[in-house]
Amino acid sequence: GRAGELERLQGVVRRLRGKTEGLVAVQITRGAPSGALDRVLLQNTLHRDPRDVSLSARIQVAPAGTACRPCGPTDSDASSPVIADSGIFSTLLRTFSPYSGDSGFSPEKWSYFAASVLQSERLNNLFVQWSQGPPLHSSPSPVRNLDQLHTQAFFVADIFVDFVVELGRAHRGKFLLRAGEAGQEGGGRFAAWDGSPEASARFELGGVKAVSSCVTKLDVAYGRDVSRVLDMVRETLYFDEVGDMEGCLEAIGGDPTVEVVRVKSSMHTDREGDSLCLAGMRFVSVYVRFTGSQEARSLCVDTHVCELLLVLTEVGRVRTAEGHVAYKELRRCLRSMAKLGRVARWLVLYGRNYHTLKMSRVTSSASVKPAEADEGALSESVSAGQPAAFTCEGSPPPEQAAYTGEPSGAAHPDTPSGGFGGPRSLRAPPSCSGESSARCQGADNVSIDASGSSATSFGVSVTPQMLEVLEELCRMSTLGISDFLDRRWDAVRKNMVDTSSLGSLFFSTCPVSAALQRWQLQLFCLISGLFNLVSPSIAAINYHKMQNSEYAAGPFRHYRLEVTLLRDGTTGRDVLGPGLSDFGIIGSSGCSCPEKQALGHGTSHALNTSFSGPVGSSFLVSYTEAQSMSGWFIKTGTPEGSQGQDPAFFNVWASNDDVEVGSGACAEAKDGKWWEGVHEVEWCGANWQRVGAPKWKWLYDVRFDFLSFGKIDFVQLPVSLPSARESVETFLLRPQWHLFYVFHVMVRVANSIGMCLAVVAARLRYTFVNTPAPNLVVAAGLGLGSALSLFAGAVAITYGEPHLAVEYIGRFVGWVIAPIALVRQGPWFFYYLSVYTVLDISISVGLIAWFHKNPFARPPSQIGALTLFLCILVIILRQVSLRKSSRLLQDDQARYNHLWATMCQQEDSTACIEHLKKVVAMIGLSRKDYCRQHNRLRADRLPKLLQDKFHRQAPVNPLFLELRLWFVLGRHRKGDEVMSLNQLYNQAVICNLLLLERLKDWADRSEGYFYVRGDGHKLVKWRDIKGTAEEESVQWTALKQHRRAIEKLHRSYNNVMGRLLDISRSAMVFEKMTDLTNALGLIVTDENVRVERLKNRLSHDYDSSETGGYRDVCISLRVVNKQSESYGTELHISEVQLVLKEFAELKTREGHRRYVSARNNSGT
């Protein structure tokens, strides 16, 4: 009879499998396909679409205490009100549906969360579409990371438990009892459960898979593909009869709230399903999504796949703790073998068909059909179309203590016995209707009173506004977009879009990347790069001609070597002779051996000479016919002891004119510096042209005669000849191609290409996000040029050319600064650029002075000249921008200054100003105090005794316990600053609500005023409207706009997010200075806040030009009550401004626009 029941069970399994045809059995998300959000964020960054203007400027109605009014930008003006108090909680976000056919913008349908965190209509539309759209996207995208998967599992776990409990109730299913509870049930290990939280402690529930187990499974079995983990949430039902299991399967298939995506069964009547991996275990596993559950859809977890195991109690009783330990060891070995097998298969088949053997990933198309696993499948890999890997995803989750007979917390002693499967501490109110209304009566340790406020199990009151914020933050996590601001910040850092003036860009955090987005600098770089390609191109052409020609100079009939400096230092008229025994030219062979007598292949003695000998301070050689030369040779004197008369510096001259020596007076040496000379001279009735010197290099700098690029440039450096007598020295005018092409061609080509490609990269980054940053492209070109310069210097040393080595290495010293500055960038880049310019030009001028004994004999470095021009241009543009900024604020600053001067002339105001100064001094908080946004102190890094102390003081989330992340409330670790923009805004949106309550209390006790919605200049005293319907008319300050926060990071804060202290900000207005001072005292003495920094701008010592004449008292503080600690925001710093009514009345929207323009001009 059991065989027939099993056959019927298999029939149900086959029918369910038929329904799963074409379904993707992977973890997917409602979000758009991969890259869609990145494109939206990039568009929001690069383009000022009217639809992407901050929603705070267009909000009309929002939840209680948080609605917004239309207004201009208020990022730097915290006293400009943009949030209104409506007094009621509304779920406005849910009222808007992108499928209603209404594509127009409806400001009244935006929530406080959308206006504060999302701040973009385009992004909010996506968020609404993903969270309230159809059950599945037409092109599902896989879960991106383990954080998103774990968040989905955390929120779907309770829904899944309710579902399993109902199945157990209807079909006599049972749950495994804990070890201590089993004896109380008469020896039975299984019992029914009605779902009550009180009884849940008696059972071993699957709950959420441990993170460590997920990481191991991803690394060993799934190739780190998070979307393939289908048992993140799993439960097990036990049945006494096969018929009950069959009925349960039928109920699952017919339940409209779930969608079955995969069914596996090892309940075969033969041995076909038995396998080594399953160790003989018989079960049915069903993978479901809650696509029809309104509660799951409201939390955006209806796409998450959960695993339900159906097992007979007879099979469950067979399993023991010892058997489970052995099974885990077997699985570990099999997975290791599978991993080695995959590596071996990859190595064997890589050359032929590697791409077909890659680990399968989830595509963006819903048409992907995973291969159906055979009954009794061994692994997830088989079901996904992979080679059998001997992994046991299809088997009952070994992490569940249901198979061990031990508590689930035994694996980790610090984990509470409930694991992650216990009741949650918070459940969103929208889920409290319909199918799950019972859970709102306290089942989740959340009590909701008549006013809508909730209280958690920690005793913290949760207002409807806060509940709305927490719910939306959870939705963002389950949708995988909780890092959208960080991704936008990454896009900004890569593209560096900045609205600052061109002159101010060079003083921002990433000046090069931002400036290269402007067409002016792109044109400058393009022209500079192309111009720098001219000199190496012409030099290469000239060098090629020189190499292909037989001679370097000529033909000439007369060659003369004139000595101007002797070894012993003799110069001028004291040089009586050349000190040589022979001199001659070298032909095309480059050989001076006298054995070669053929014309053009030997020394000058192989040619027909008409005269050869010393004439005055020169050695003259004349030929019967004009001859060309590729070099020359000299032979030192014959007499011993004549080393001092050897030439140390000389010039080689050539002429075709007739020479008339006569008495020899014309050939005598003349007075003057030994290095002084010209390229042409008249000597003994003939015009001579200089064709040689002891040392020489190549022309490559900017000259009017472009055809001189790459030609020989003779330098005024002495030479040391051998001391041996009658020794022959040769001087060839054949440059080494290694030196020439490396330094004079390749270096400049690398620099030029780097500049040109930087322009291309800057243009392409609008289309291709992964294009390298322009500053890195320029740095790569200049860095390659610097490396080649250093290499050329090393080669010059090996060839015995020390003067060339000095030049190449000297240029390297200057050039190496440029790529370093380009990579680091930062606000000091302009000063690095100035230092590089001065150093490069100084080295260039120093080398010219050393070579030619005249620093102005040659033009300086080309690159140095270009950077000098750029520096001068930046300075001019910067001064123009500052002057323009000052003019924009001139009228507003004059009005503020006039008001301040009038106040200072009044005795009462002067006394109050002095009193305020004393109060601030007594508080002892300077505006220069260290103040940053910090993370909590990690208790797990403290000594063991302190760890136990903090662990006892406050409960620790089980997830943090497993990850070994324990934090100390209210304490921060110095240097551990917040590094995430999303984290800052998530904290700020919560702190803004907490700070609002404190703000109302302070205003009530200090005669504070707030703005009225709809009229930016009308003020109302809070005490007069407190508790009345007019509270709804009050407007509160919105969170700082994303654009402005990113601008401040980029322009002023060097990308340090911890310096953003005014994302959450508020303002109070006072009619009298005494009321303002009283409010300051209330804030400082309030036990719910802690003041971190105080800026007293209502002081004679304050320079009002920093704020355009505007004055107030700015307080940076933290909310440190029990609520903020429960939300994890007690370390977040907010800003409160105390403003005098006279200053508030002078503020206008037009004035703020002028301030924004001035700020963009100055780049602050």
State the low-pLDDT regions, or none.
Answer: 45-108, 272-276, 350-448, 592-605, 702-710
Oligomer: single chain
Report the sheet-strand fraction.
15-25%
Our Rg estimate from Cα atoms comes to 42 Å
Q: What is the residue-mean pLDDT, rounded to a whole number?
A: 75
Largest sheet: 6 strands, antiparallel
Distance between the termini: 84 Å
* Helix amount: 40-55%
- Bulk shape: flat
Overview features:
single chain, 1164 residues, alpha+beta, 6-stranded antiparallel β-sheet, 4-stranded mixed β-sheet, 35 helices, 33 strands, 41% helix, flat
Please give a structural write-up.
The chain is an alpha+beta fold. The strands form eleven sheets. A six-stranded antiparallel sheet has the order 16-17-14-19-21-20, with no helix packed on it. Strands 7-10-9-8 form a four-stranded mixed sheet. The protein has a four-stranded mixed sheet with strand order 30-33-32-31. Helix 19 (534-548) packs antiparallel against helix 20, helix 21 (774-798) packs antiparallel against helix 22 and helix 24 runs antiparallel to helix 25 (862-905). The protein is flat. The protein starts with a helix and ends with a helix.
